[in-house]
Specification:
- The protein is mainly alpha-helical.
- The chain has 10 helices and 7 strands.
Length: 252
């Protein structure tokens, strides 16, 4: 979760900035919350304070699963405008699962055919490998990819912002090897096992359940939905406003 906390700090700073913003510090964003000294030098001390506090896991958290495909406009819109912003605000009361596969098909020859072509299959596999390698810390680079003009071209630079070093080589080893195909097969099985069967993407389950009502509420304001379903003491963020509605789907 550390890279996710750094990512939250970066978004908080950027949201308060003007179009032209100059960072005065010599550290990359992935290191901003490494210490209070670095955070202070980079002007993100307030935003990094949550990273310095250890919180107990919440067993009553709301579980949100997103079944999606990497080049689907509606999936990208939901992930960028609803899912990740909600996670930033409500990270202590929600868990997120990403399943990149969507409307793809697995052939008897163990190949994959994707709705938006081979590029989407590659994007799905890159994101599946990131999730396998980095867990929740894969969410910031995936957000970065999905919010970019070109998802595939953004993949390496997005990953290197949050996982500098040899992370990209590790992901590409997964993509080009047996592990990538294994992960995609697992996502195919998981997507195929949905009840009710998925009819489009993004397909959202809440605590393992999908209904038209839950889907509509999640697409309209995932933030409000998570706040309403959480049974514990509501975090302060839950008194704030809701998200923007998305009506874009990729049908089978």
């Amino acid at each position: 979760m550390f890279a996710l906390k750094v990512f939250m700090s970066l978004l908080a700073v950027l949201s308060q900035s003007h179009a032209r913003f100059v960072f005065p510090c010599k550290y990359p964003p992935s290191q901003w919350c490494d210490s209070k000294e670095i955070a202070a030098e980079c002007g993100v001390l307030e935003q990094c304070m949550n990273a310095f506090n250890v919180t107990k896991p919440n067993d009553g958290a709301v579980n949100v699963s997103l079944y999606y495909e990497s080049l689907c406009p509606g999936c990208r819109q939901f992930l960028v405008l609803q899912l990740v912003p909600t996670l930033i605000l409500l990270q202590d009361i929600m868990n997120v699962e990403l399943v990149p596969f969507g409307n793809a098909k697995e052939t008897p020859e163990h190949k994959f055919v994707c709705q938006h072509g081979d590029d989407e299959c590659l994007g799905n596999m890159i994101e599946a490998c990131m999730l396998d390698e980095f867990g929740m810390d894969a969410i910031p680079p995936i957000f970065c990819m999905e919010s970019s003009t070109d998802v595939l071209k953004a993949a390496q630079p997005c990953l290197e912002v949050y996982q500098p070093g040899e992370a990209w080589d590790s992901v590409m080893k997964c993509v080009k090897g047996d592990q990538g195909y294994k992960l995609m097969h697992e996502n195919a099985v998981k997507t195929g096992a949905l009840k009710p069967p998925h009819e489009y993407v993004p397909w959202i389950t809440i605590n393992g359940e999908h209904t038209d009502a839950l889907q509509d509420k999640a697409m309209n304001s995932l933030f409000s939905l998570v706040c309403s379903l959480y049974k514990g003491e509501k975090p302060a963020a839950c008194v704030l406003g809701s998200g923007k509605k998305s009506n874009s789907y990729c049908m089978n």
